[in-house]
Amino acid sequence: MSEPKKWVKEDPNNRFLFWPTEIMKKKAWVSDESIYKEAEKNPIAFWGKKAKEGLEWFKAWTETYQWDPPYYKWFLNGKINASYNALDRHVKTWRKNKAAIIWEPEPPDEPTRVLTYNDLYREVNKLANVLKSLGVQKGDRIGIYLPMIPEVQIAMLACARIGAIHSVVFSAFSGESLKSRMKDAEAKILVTADGYYRRGKIVDLKANADLGVADTDIKHVIVVKRAGNPIRMTKGRDVWWDQLMAKAPLYCEPEPMDSEDMLFILYTSGTTGKPKGIIHDTGGYLTVALWTAKWDFDLHDDDIFWCTADIGWITGHTYACYGPLLNGATILVYEGALNFPQVDRWWEIVEKFGVTIFYTAPTAIRMLLRWGEEWPEKHNLRSLRLLGTVGEPINQDAWMWYFNHIGGGRCPVIDTWWQTETGATLINALPGIGPFIPTVAGRSFPGTIHDILDETGQPVKIGEGGYLVQKSPFSPGMLRGVYKDPERYAAQYWNTYGDKIYYTSDGAIWWDELGNIRLTGRVDDVMKVAGHRLSTAEVENALTQNSSVAECAVVAAPHEVKGEVPIAFVVLKQGINPSTELESELIQQVIRAIGPTAKPAKIVMTDALPKTRSGKIMRRILKALVKGETVGDTTTLMNPETVEDLKQKVG
Ligand code: WT7
User: What is the pLDDT of residue 154?
Assistant: First the structure.
């Protein structure tokens, strides 16, 4: 077979610019530029049309969009069910026996599991009946603390089927993190597993789950047997998944939900120590999950879509569950680490299953790049036809490496910008339209409106930077609130430029007159550590729990592979001396409180932190120190002498 025509171009500013090939254009769902203009003319009508075309509604909505700042609603009074749209619709067609989930366990000698749409449908129905038999009612919250095994999608869809609200917690988060989320959500039931594999070892998930459910409202813990590790089952509370499922009836009527009813709550880090429960609705979220999955990744029936994100993050929710399943697509789910047993495990999987669409984070690409192209070269990756990235800005080197060594120069790289709050992708190039520009995410998805404003609220010009915002009509996939905390919702997103403009907390630059946007990173105290969203305040809270710590400040330092890493500046209490033992104790404290992803890369023990005369810690100075930038004016400091000392220690 002949290679498709190479489509590399260089623009006059000596930057790379790629356009889709004719083959790509021909296959793509959208390849005509006019889609942007059309949607822009009437975004409300655009989304109304898409919601009707893509989904099956039990009852049509009476009003497409309603805006009462800072709240908005879509598809008002429409009735719909997520699990019905992801499953029932497909089992009525030839897709009944199509693979919905191909699951690859981490241990290479364990067999692959394949669930057809009919298998998934049956298991979801059974679990929905199990949940009902345990007393779960519409509107109840269910915690899900599972690794990447098919039971996680089954559990999410079973909740959706009966109108229960799922709240998935990343399985690498600690028991304490789980507990604070379960308490806030007032969850009734937790679905977890005995353990799972990570780099060849079994992680004792149930032990963490036990910590997490203590002193909460959780009445029952449903335990999936995955790793077979010995665990403690608490009588009357803990029940095995298999035992419950064995007796469950095969069909459960899907609950007709109001379009605006909550589908799920997902906790995410903000600028304070307490994660916020981001609320997503049903009809609006499903509409955008479906169409972004279809158009961004050009998802067709013969594709195998692999989104490597963990289900504990929004990327997993939307592109390793709802988005592709709503499209009747086949998803690949891999349980384990990318470097087990060797650093080519991902490529082995791509080759083994003929993955066609691959979606991952820049941090992973940078890691793979360091290991070298000899690893992907060992494998036939020609099945791939589209690559995606998400989670943080991607540097040009990583983009080019991904394009050349994974995509073989054939596949467009779709850099998708979005947030837990936006529910689905918002800014990216479309594969049949382009252009694909390294380090530039792309244009606003059709039917959505973004702008970049300066400090005073004025739009910036092309080539200039400012703050990224979204304008009404807001994407139907956007958050509907912060669970039990309307003040925080208003303050976080609708305060910077008033209650009519959604503030993203991201810096951005207008790239060109086409409306392409380059994202430059968070402008608040939210870190992206290996693609994981964490707040500096959460790490600070964990550290100050230690009785030796008087005071601390955490800032993000740039890191070649992880993007950012937390650095902790710690002032010890009187009479306590710095030691390596104390350092590891503090690191353990963070792991216990949040999880291993939050582990500080360095703990700097110091006598004092730079402070203003009014006693405020000058984070600006700490940030400059860890970035190796000049510190600037220190005359307003109460203790300028600390800066020299810290400079030495940071090194
Ligand atoms: C933050 C949101 C969106 C799903 C995963 C992350 C950063 C996300 C990009 C991108 C530059 C990006 C932003 C955003 N971000 N995608 N393509 N280019 N930055 O969701 O954990 O809620 O984090 O991730 O800073 O605000 P999240």
Answer: 99
